[in-house]
Amino acid sequence: MISLLAPEDHQPGHPRLGSAGRISFGWEVRIVGQDGRDLPVGSAGELLIRGEPLFSGYWRDPEATAAAFAEGGWYRTGDIARLTGDGYLYILDRAKDMIISGGENIYPAEVEAVLARHPAVADVAVLGRPDPVWGEAVHAVIIPASEGASAGEIIAWRRGELAHFKCPKSVEFTDALPRTTTGKVLKRELRARLAGQVRVGTAVANAALRPPVLAALTAAQLDQAAGGRFILGLGVGNAVMNARFGVAPAAPPLRLVEEYVEVIRSVLTLAPGYDGQVFRTGMIPLDSRPVRADLPVYLGALGPRMLALAGRVADGVILNLMTPAQAGQAAGLVRGAARAAGRDPASVEVACVVHCCLSGDPGAAAAAARAVVPRYVLHPAAPRLFGELDGGVELGGVRELVLAGDRAGAAGLVPQQVADGFVAHGSEAACAARLAEYRAAGVDLPVVFPMPVGGDWGYERTIAAMARRG
User: What's the rounded Cα separation, in Å, for the pair 357 and 362?
Assistant: First the structure.
């Protein structure tokens, strides 16, 4: 127990009754900002704790341990708190629930406490929703206490108690709030409701590992579960990956993928069967009609021939490991192939995976970007994509250390220019600017792939930050 509230403070109406009390003997606490620096007394920030009773790490999980602890053995609680000048600790909210609107930090618990006093509100949960102007806006999910509750009235109520940017911009009425067995509101489920138009998909499923009929049936089920928002991303892996799985090439990759797509479409359209050079099927019965017979199929492509195939037969292409310039060239090839096949080039969406190392520490972000390269250096396309064939860099030593199992050592040999080519890294603004370069080069959809910085993967933080930037 890191804090205690004294008996004399446990009086009805006492101003300190809402605090967690004073810090207990044997514990140290810090309140830090997003940059990890200590904040002035009374400021709200993340609560870090340290003390003898604290556990030393997660059992056999060094990555989780590194993500949970800051330098010096300080444990990141994930709580937003403030510490008063007389030593009282107030827990305000959870860091992952914090809303950032127009650069202002908003704590949902504060807004919930105000809205909960409205006579028409039986229960309420507040969360952020994407906003094209402010990054995020306050959204309230309310269980009404009576019929006829008005969203406008609730939004306007007690405006004087909340700064204008903290007031809800939208209200959603519901019969129940999703909760854990201990009664906590599951805000991730509420966020999922708001993300009802967000597409989900595979990027990419290896066609060499599963039959096309099975892929089609699975895709149909996933599309139904996702409410018609699923995208099936397909690829053929690479020789190194497939050898690890014991997969021998069944056919030339281009022919395999082209027929694979045709089989999937024949299954989803309830065609009588498919008769090709690689695959032959009969009529495939489905338990229920697919949500979409034209479920989109995207192809993962790095080389010119697969890019051209995507332009001819797919609904989209998924690029990876490319600089903005390389992605722009690939997009041009895809659209040119679509045009030559008599298709509208704009009908083929160009997506590109962009690895992202988000951190306010430029040096740490740059080092994390270099650590991404060893993950891919054995890929057959790496020499071309990373510039080795042009004579600009030499990655032989990196490969040797990767094969020897020393990824950390391999990262130390990576030239920064290689990492800079395909990894967005640095501050939120720097990463957003890099994504903008991909869009300017002709990429329709940059797909953010968060990478760890100092052991912290920061998935939610990175995705939320890039969502704020549009």
Answer: 10
323-358 pLDDT, tens digit per residue, is: 999 999 999 999 999 999 999 998 899 999 999 999
Let me know: does 178 contact 141? Beta carbons within 8 Å: no
How is residue 180 written in tokens? 């854990």
> In 184-303, which ranges are continuous DSSP H helix?
187-194, 212-225, 239-244, 253-268
- Interval 209-225: pLDDT, tens: 889 999 999 999 998 88
CA 158 to chain centre: 35
Say whether 282 sits in a helix, a strand or coil. coil
Question: Residue holding tokens 């704009």?
Answer: 346
Shared-domain flag, residues 70 and 212: no
At residue 442, φ and ψ (nearest 5 deg) are 120, 5
Structural domain including 243 reads: 200-468
For residue 166, what pLDDT is reported? 93
User: Which parts of 226-361 fold into alpha helices (H)?
Assistant: 239-244, 253-268, 304-313, 324-340
Q: How many domains is the chain partitioned into structurally?
A: 3
Instruction: Please give the full DSSP string across 67-133, using - where no structure is assigned.
Output: HHEETTTEEEEEEEEEE-TTSEEEEEEEGGG-EEETTEEE-HHHHHHHHTTSTTEEEEEEEEEEETT
Q: Nearest-CA neighbor of 283 among 211, 222, 219, 213? A: 213
DSSP conformational letter for 262: H
CA 9 to CA 7: how far, in whole Å? Answer: 5
Element (H, E) at 45: strand 45-51
Cβ neighbours for 417, distance < 8 A, ≥ 6 positions apart? 387, 392, 393
pLDDT of residue 83: 95
Identify whether residues 85 and 103 lie together within a single domain: no
Beta bridge partners of 179: 185
Same domain, yes or no: 405 and 291:
yes
